[in-house]
Amino acid sequence: MNIQQLEYIIAVDTYRHFSKAAEASFVTQPTLSMMIQKLEDELGVKIFDRSQLPVQPTEIGKRLIDQARVAVAQVNQIKEIILEEKGVVKGVFRLGIIPTVSPYLLPRLMQVHHDNKYDVRIVISELTTEQILAGLANDSLDGGILATPLKEATISEKPIYYEQFLAYVSPYERALYAKTSLDENDLNTARLWLLDEVHCFRTQILHLCNLKKRRGTNQSIFSYDGGSIDTLINIVDKNEGLTVIPEMAVANLSEEQKKNVRPFKNATPVREISLVTRKEFIRERLIDLIVSEVKEAIPVSLQDEAMKKYIIPL
To answer: How much is the pTM?
Structure first.
């Protein structure tokens, strides 16, 4: 048994396809298949059921793959200790970003990272909070950018910025549209368009308008089964109702659409966006680099820590 074999079974489990796993591992499929077969022969068990498509791990295979992920992560951690000791900031950082952040942050972050020319390759996936936490747990991700605080014992959070919630009102909502600012109760008076329940952004909005406990009886809530705030904006543009958008989304609006944005009065509801990693992730210099680049990519006005007291719960 060797580390390479463990990496191969992890790759097959990730892609559920021998050819794709081989391509991702930069080896030929016969080589990858042969190495896995040797491991199965050595252990005396079948790790994968090759009769199924996509390929599936056996029950014992699932347990072995979970342990393989731990073993490979620990070996990589040894390498990371050496790099950290030498002050070397290089390599690959696998980053998950939630869908309500990525459209507004990612284009700017990519430009900043390209201009800085660091010897670091950032591999980015758009994932929900739950998927990011699962990726951190199974070592398929190194970090995530998402809304916090999560209060998860196994992860470390580095807050980066604080973003206001803003109302986006349809011009057809004449009474609301006439107002220069809204309060939380205004969210209950018209059709409120929200993301699907897998998104923490939805949960924070329900907290904001005190709808969480009575959402089952409130017929004014319309859910959109997806992760696109831009689609919600387009829905509001062409229908009655309103939605809630993050502050950074305003930059993507046309001048006409910006007329539909309203702040909240008597409160400044915000969400905290952080870089999260496993607690045992030790490459602090690499984490600091990612945090600094995100800060470089966002307006300075969003980096005021005093806004922390206005965070809406998750």
So the answer is: 0.77
